[in-house]
Amino acid sequence: MFGWKGKFLRVNLKKGKAVTTKLTSPIARKFLGGRGFAAKILWDELQPGIDPLSPSNKLIFAAGPLTGFALPSSGKLVVAAKSPLTGGYGDGNIGSHAAVQIRKAGYDAVILEEKADKPTVLLVQDEIVEFLDAKDLWGLSSFETEKRLRSVYGASAGILCIGQGGEHLVKFANIVCQEGRAGGRPGMGAVMGSKNVKALVFVGSGDLSAAKPKKMKELGAEAYREVLTKPNYNFWKRQGTMMTIEWSQENSVLPTFNYKEGVFDQADAIGGFTMEKLKVSNRGCPHCNMTCGNVVMGSDGKESELDYENVAMLGSNIGLGNLKQVAALNRAADEFGLDTISLGNVIGFAMEASEKGLIKEKIEWGEFEGTKTLIEDITYRSGLGEFLAEGVRYFAEKIGGNSNRWAMHVKGLEISAYDCHTTPAMALAFATSSIGAHHKDAWVISWEVNFGREKYVEEKVDKVIEFQRIRGGIFESLTVCRLPWIELDFELDWYSRFLHAATGFEMPWSELNIIADRIFTLIRAFWIREYGKNWSREIDIPPARWFEEPLTKGPLKGAKLDRTKYGILLDRYYRERGWDNQGIPTKATLEKLGLEDVAKQLE
Q1: Which of 200, 300, 390, 579 is the most buried (most CB within 10 A)?
Q2: What share of the chain is helix, strand, coil (3-state, %, to 5)?
Q3: 215-230 pLDDT, tens digit each
């Protein structure tokens, strides 16, 4: 095979054994890699209804056929499992040397099975796999863990680890690398902790084999030059995603006070231009020439890598208007290995619950010291943190008081940093995302604001599906970063050309869209299989707050979503996807996508 390495590494942690299995060409072509491989493995190999934190779950690290080649932003890796936060399919992607090193070591995916008897570091050096004692690392932060391992295995080693949040099975613990690169929002760090794995280290010495090596080299060099010519490149290098603070404020979509509002009085104090004044360096993933990690010095005197999502969620959403303090909270979250989006959401929820008298703890909006303490309590499951560590859906059920109406999640995954009182297409994108309320699959909000946010029309449904195919289907499976395309208008045609040079297969976007639909529909089937009789279309409806509580501030004061019109959009979405009126794929759709075995199981 070209492009793919043709092998999976299966690691039985209980037995301390690892074996390789063959990746066949038909499976590679049907599912590409990354998310596609992960979804296929989890569907085929997990028994329905397993406890996500039991040894029966599998933790998958999957690359794609473009991962690691000298192409723009190709240093990406997908990590996936059944989610302990949502109970459905969960994954995330991480920009990391591990992505490149897994491929150099000879694997397209590494699958962790069962549970180690004691804290373990998994060391993969080409075909040699070792299970190292991690007792001296257990209890350390993700940063300190990586520092110690890197001192042994070198600067180019791929190292993925968990912090104390993953050890204590916080349901939104993630996996961390390179002091701020993180992924796995729906609790992939908790799954890793449940398996007693503190870290994975990948060191590879092999090469990546392309079907057309000369063409691949030429395309890569040309593509890197093309990225540099894009009009927005220089401003991107200055601010990265932090430019979105000002944009979101201007367009009344900046999450504020647990998504009650779309504007924040202190937005300028946490925005991109303020960040530029504090910026000390810039970081990025391997093979990237549009690095987006803006590093500032926090109020704790430590470096912190910022982007839009963590600043909005740990800033405006909890009423904190001091960027250096936001940076300190973000640094703490990264060290503990907590997802900053879910963290900012559960803290905002707790602050509102405190304000409404639903909990005895007093947590004021914008309170820095109290929030720092609360983050530590969540990490170690102490006091109120014991309940918040389970996520906002669980905590709302716990405290009652109609708080489920303003618990900001879909399917148990806390919403990313965009308020949708005024953006029905983005609300639909959150509600139908493959992992729960995440922007990664279909960030349509910028397009929607330009198109006309007040409209409830079929073009919006079409755009959500188009973006889900490109972003959530193909980019997550190739596996490469979406930012060159979405932020700099790097043309999509590049990726089919890259794929042809890598694999030798001609796969135009018409074929890639079918692959994307296959992956997306398989993930939907996984959710339905897991939820069983509890599944209904209500699961695809965003929080009641956006329908029932209009904005009270800003230029769009009084705006809210229309539930009836949203329902019409959802109906059209189901029809376009080939799903029934409860959001379940029809037998005909599954068979058309080559998922006959899935159709039999769902029946």
Answers
A1: 200
A2: 45, 15, 40
A3: 999 999 999 999 999 9
